[in-house]
Design goal:
48% helix; alpha+beta; 518 residues; 4-stranded antiparallel beta sheet; 18 helices
């Protein structure tokens, strides 16, 4: 099969991704001149390429698929055994060049070339002789490239005195070899230390004494493991990780949930990576600039920005309390003012439409339980069948911080829950499980997705579990339930939180005004 390649692909990525994992080489030579990555290969695996422009006729074997940007003709043999044979034959050919402005080689021209092709037995004998030779040539090329790389690394070190050819340069081949590194390689510094000692003592010792000193020093260092001094960045990262780890440990001791701890840790790590400073040196301006940058680049809401500010305040206040810093830099960053938006609640009509649209008993029972108890979705998914007390129409839930409380449901919820549990055939102890086998416990995201789907089916937007909680709080206050009892029912520590949930009906405010002030 013969085809041309060389056009820049439409789908392109500078880095390797799951979609774009085929390399693009700018000069057509495999593993050289990496330009980027794309999704489809122009040159297939085990193909033979011929340069169509420039050095016309230049021939190479390609072991892996890739995309060249320069013009190449690719020949892919159908018989795998003919790969090396065809490469040697094509390599020795002289190709005719066409084109008045720019000479080039085309697919039709190479397709009409007649190539002698041996039978299978002759080809097999040829491969037995040629394959070992080709493998040896490739191995030699690889070794030459490795030696050239070592030469390029050592030559500057020899020129500036960091490495020496004294002692017949056996240092490179002894068990105590020197490996110089950049940030990605690891040093073995023993011979470098010995050489430094010898250079310092050369003026006062004879050659025999220097040789004895070399042996003694080498023997002493053979029992030691020497590692290079950490760079400033490595040292900073290590110190920051230790402080963050200690802070996270303190939060675990305080009883924070795993979800809260993960949020704290990821948020602080992102700040540290962005600022690139020791946490004890981070200033108020660093944090302000980071928050402003996050708002601009990621489009964070004011609520999310203030959440980040509170997390950083907690972290730096802990550093201050533990005497790592004298004053928290977050003290001068004030609370972010958020917009006071009136959040929607479900009307009686919305609730009935949702109930009528349910095709499964589970969904009806779930909606009724959320609406009559006002429990959080995280509390809902943790409930087991045995937690339900149908006689008293109540159940025990575990809220934030593993706080236990009782919630109460109405008669409608009781009936629908009983019907749902009676028709279940699984043995899962969870109150709500998936509809399909193996009937696993519903997750928070599972409940959210299901309610969102039910809402879309009846053209109700933004139907989510928390909306039922807010609806219950608003209904309770509208009907005159004392705010302290609403607080207890919802499981809030602070009454201010309850006031945020309860959307007081404006019509009720008007009636109350006439009743008490007119």
């Amino acid at each position: 099969m013969v085809k041309a390649g060389g056009d820049c692909p439409i789908i392109f990525s500078k880095t390797r991704t799951q979609e774009c994992n085929i390399p693009i080489f700018s000069n057509g030579t495999e593993n050289r001149g990496l330009y980027g990555f794309t999704d489809k290969a122009a040159i297939e695996e085990r193909s033979i390429t011929v340069a169509a422009r420039g050095t016309i006729g230049y021939c190479e074997r390609r072991l892996k698929p890739f995309v060249p940007i320069i013009r190449l003709l690719a020949i892919t043999p159908k018989d795998e055994g003919a790969y090396i044979y065809l490469h040697q034959v094509i390599k020795g050919m002289k190709f005719k060049k066409n084109g008045s402005v720019q000479q080039q080689l085309t697919v039709p021209e190479i397709s009409f070339i007649e190539i002698p092709y041996p039978n299978s037995s002759v080809l097999s004998e040829y491969n037995k002789l040629a394959n070992p030779i080709v493998e040896m040539i490739e191995r030699n090329i690889s070794e030459n490239e490795s030696l050239t790389k070592q030469r390029d690394e050592l030559l500057p070190l020899l020129m500036n005195g960091q490495a020496s050819v004294n002692y017949h340069f056996s240092v490179l081949f002894s068990p105590y070899y020197i490996i110089y590194r950049d940030q990605y390689k690891l040093y073995d510094m023993k011979e470098a230390i010995i050489q430094a000692v010898l250079d310092g003592m050369r003026a006062v010792l004879t050659e025999n004494q220097l040789g004895l000193l070399t042996d003694v020093t080498r023997k002493a260092l053979s029992e030691c493991e020497i590692t290079p001094k950490a760079t400033e960045e490595e040292q900073r990262n290590k110190e920051n990780a230790e402080l963050l780890g200690a802070f996270i440990s303190s939060k675990k001791v305080e009883g924070c949930s795993d979800k809260t701890i993960h949020y704290y840790k990821s948020s602080i790590e992102k700040l540290i990576v962005a600022v690139k400073k020791n946490v004890c040196d981070i200033t108020t301006n660093d944090i302000r600039c980071y928050l402003a940058e996050q708002q601009e680049q990621r489009g964070l809401s004011k609520v999310t920005t203030d959440n980040l500010r509170r997390i950083y305040s907690s972290f730096f206040s802990w550093l201050e309390d533990e005497d790592y810093i004298t004053k928290s830099p977050v003290r001068r960053i004030h609370k972010v003012r958020t917009d006071a938006l009136v959040k929607e609640v479900l009307t009686d009509e919305n609730i009935e439409v949702l109930r009528d649209s349910c095709q499964e008993l589970r969904d009806v029972a779930m909606i009724d339980l959320l609406l009559s108890t006002g429990m959080r979705v995280g509390e809902l998914v943790k409930i087991n069948r045995e937690d339900i007390d149908f006689q008293e129409r109540q159940c025990v839930v575990f809220g934030k911080g593993n706080k236990e409380r009782e919630v109460y449901f109405n008669a409608r919820t009781k009936i629908h829950l009983k019907k749902y549990l009676e028709q279940r055939t699984d043995s899962n102890p969870a109150l709500f499980v998936s509809l399909k086998e193996p009937h696993t416990r519903l997750t928070i995201s599972g409940v959210e997705v299901r309610l969102r789907q039910l809402g879309k089916n009846v053209n109700l937007h933004k139907v989510h579990p928390h909306k039922f909680r807010r609806t219950l709080a608003t209904m309770a206050i509208d009907k005159g339930m004392p705010i302290e009892q609403v607080q207890k029912m919802l499981g809030h520590v602070k009454i201010d939180t309850t006031l945020h949930y309860a959307m007081v009906n404006q019509a009720n405010v008007k009636i109350a005004h006439r009743k008490f002030l007119n």
